[in-house]
Amino acid sequence: MKLSDLVAKYIELRDKKYELKHQYEFKSAQIDEVLDQIEAKLLETFDSAGIDSCKTEFGTAYASTRSTASVADPETFMQFVIENEEWSLLEKRVAKSAVEQFKVALPEKVKKSVNQELIDQINKTLSDPEMYEAYRDDLLSYTQVMADSRFKVTDYVNAVKYVSHKLMGATNIEAYTKTFPDKYQRFVQQGVSAKDIASYVTAYNKSKLVNLIFEQTLVPSYVLNQDLYQKALNVQAELMITAKSEKVRSDAANSLLTHLKMPETQKVELDIGVKEGGAIAALRESTLALAHLVLA
Prior knowledge:
- The protein has helices at 3-49, 74-84, 96-105, 116-125, 129-141, 153-167, 172-179, 181-189, 194-205, 208-217, 221-224, 226-242, 246-260, 278-295; strands at residues 53-56, 59-62.
- The chain is mainly α.
- It folds into three domains: 3-62; 91-217, no CATH class; 224-260.
């Protein structure tokens, strides 16, 4: 089949799909309107008769009440929950905005992998209020390790949870147990020895995905020790002014000049010359030979 035929077929099917979708949405809206009218009539009949359900040969219709809770002052409410540790007042689920942020942070290739099962997995992890903020931030921070799509998103979520516990001071076995509580319990129930469990944990701790995330958590030493850097400069400055030895003052001054000098402008030079290869030389010879024949 020609490329033009393929393109034509694609456009035809795309337009047909759009047409069917439009027809479905239009007819579905009409049905929903009728369903709403029937529901309203049923509720009106229930209220008049003082009942909340009715059984017929076709099925049972019943009225249900759905309760919702709103918070007038969210900050005061959260402060009350934290101070009194009334965690039962909160629902154990991740905010929709956090899920959207997670989708945005993921590389394009793996965004489609975010499904309800994954969201449920994240909800389960965030049910620990002490873990919520750290885990949420880590989950959004290390998505670059998914750039080449070598790992499943669910594995990434578990690895981030494991690393988050490690960064909070947990041992390997503690972090593994908190990340995979069901798997750990299964090991115990099956009678797996502590030595073998430790081997599984060590293997997971050394896995590629976990170590890629660990690499993302590393902070350069010059950033971690920025306060010491400034203190060292202050000491050198004080020595330069107050030291009795001329050599000490001179060395301190040179040290300050070295570390505080302006960055040097670096020029990048590119060699864009075309190096002649064997193919180009052969082409030149053929062209010259052809020219000689024409001139002759």
